[in-house]
């Protein structure tokens, strides 16, 4: 996935709140098995850093902490939110609201499938 970002096959959208969340999340013990290098984290922040807005949006979500993800997707006019978070994947009302804005909610596997179709 990171190689697709580096090759600009996919474009990331985000916000400073998401960048902070990302840098904290990749340090969690359960992600250690992926051996994410500091350089990879720096690359992601460098790629998206110049366009990171501070975004607030009023959306009813099952998990209010996911508002930063939805806000960044809407502000960045993303085609999709790629996540393993069940609160985003299984929220039909949110999926409908996002569909009105032409934003899909995909699992990483679904994104990979789309990239190689």
Describe the structure.
The chain is mainly α and 117 residues long. It has one domain (2-115). Helix content is 49%, strand content 5%. The chain has helices spanning 2-6, 16-25, 38-49, 67-75, 86-89, 92-100, 108-115, and strands at residues 80-82, 104-106. The protein has a two-stranded parallel ribbon. It is globular, with a radius of gyration of 14 Å. It starts with a helix and ends with a helix.
**Percent of sequence in beta strands:** 5-15%
Given the C-alpha coordinates, what overall shape results? globular
**Strand line-up of the largest beta sheet:** 1-2
Major sheet: 2 strands, parallel
Q: How many β strands by DSSP?
A: 2
Number of helices: 7
Task: Provide a compact summary of the structure.
By secondary structure, the protein is mostly helical. It has helices spanning 2-6, 16-25, 38-49, 67-75, 86-89, 92-100, 108-115; strands at 80-82, 104-106. The protein is built from 7 helices and 2 strands, in the order H-H-H-H-E-H-H-E-H.
